[in-house]
Amino acid sequence: MADSRGIIISETFTPPAPRKLQDTGLNIGMLTDLALKILYFESYLSGRNLAERMALPFAGVVDQVLEFLKRERLCEVRGTTGQGRGGFSEATYEYVLTERGREMARDALDRSQYSGPAPVPLPVYYKSVVAQGLKEVKVHQRQLRQALAHLVLSERTFEQVGPAVNSGRSIFLFGDPGNGKTSIAEAIGSLLMEGDIYIPYAVEIEGQIIKVFDNVNHMLVDEGEVPHNVDPRWMRIRRPFIVVGGELTLEGLDLVYDTSNKYYEAPFQMKANGGILLIDDFGRQQVRPRDLLNRWIVPLEKRIDFLTLHTGRKIEIPFEVLIVFSTNLEPKELVDEAFLRRIRHKIEVGDPGWEEYREIFRRVSEGKKIPFDERALAYLIQEHYIKVRRPPRACHARDLLDQIIDIAGYLNIRPTMSKELIDRAADSYFVEL
Known about the structure:
Blueprint: H1 28-42, E1 44-46, H2 47-54, H3 58-71, E2 75-80, E3 93-97, H4 99-111, E4 120-121, H5 122-131, H6 141-147, H7 155-167, E5 170-174, H8 181-192, E6 196-200, E7 202-205, E8 208-211, E9 234-238, E10 241-244, E11 256-258, E12 263-265, H9 268-271, E13 276-279, H10 289-302, E14 304-308, E15 314-318, E16 322-327, H11 331-334, H12 337-342, E17 345-348, H13 354-367, H14 374-386, H15 396-411, H16 419-429
Parallel strand pairs: 4-7, 5-16, 5-17, 8-12, 10-13, 13-16
Antiparallel strand pairs: 1-3, 2-3, 6-9, 7-8, 11-12, 14-15
């Protein structure tokens, strides 16, 4: 089906709200531990507020957890917050831990400090990622032209980008710096981020917690109050677009175990499931490119990834990510033929032609409110490109016009494309290597 923006999407995945404790997929031990830790930190809470902190319905789930805690003499009622819609109810009662409950809470905290929304089981997460993958997300020429309208690209490059996006698999962008590789990836990300998916706040595997939601890399969809038919443990977000650069390490691609808090942070590719992971400036990382590439062979081929718990156990995670490698280096310096074969689409983003360079210069000068002058541009091209055999880059127009603005400000004159300002801008910008 297509959404109102013309993007072809699969049927929406909606996690159903649990009606009873068994529907959560979690055992009573994990849920009571979570309730104990939340009550320990908050001193006391109403049943309704505890349900909100656990991101679970009160009726049928949290009320059963509280019933167990009371039966085991781990908590007790200290009063009520007031009358609810239907009169007094257990949801309005305030609960406080007993001394035994506080002792049990400290034991639970020794095992894990996690006290956020209840996690979802790994198999449920796995199915959700596959159901919301990119394989059925399709974009067509019209949508792609709109997304890339702010860039000046050759028709050849444009026609390569569309099929690469629709593959939902992998793209290798290469070419000289400053010609828009990162901008192309960001435009693709903006286009796909118009779609929405559900992700859990956290995932549980054999009692271990993996935190998935990241308020830095995930953009929440503002829906107001969560509908009653939706599991509140799940967050509705825009399809992720996550960028990593020179700081990327092999350790950053595996589960990060917090030894103090005793739970895990999901790695970048897990957080990017259902969206895009851009490895920018590929080849500049501290780890050897070949080691980094070897890490991606299984995920790219099998669409699954294997992560390691601190116990040494391997767990299988779905890999539904459009991964984009962007590099200024020569592909032959980074990869071999065997790896390139595993990457579906290879796109060279080359230098702009003179007509393309002119259009870039015209657009940038208009945006910076500097009068565009054809003759001045011809002078710039002749003197500072052709004569010195310097190739044009897409970023040069922006940078040279910024130089002109800086110089004109210093001279206290209006910025224009005069020969004097062009020469001074070029002299202070270009460096012969």
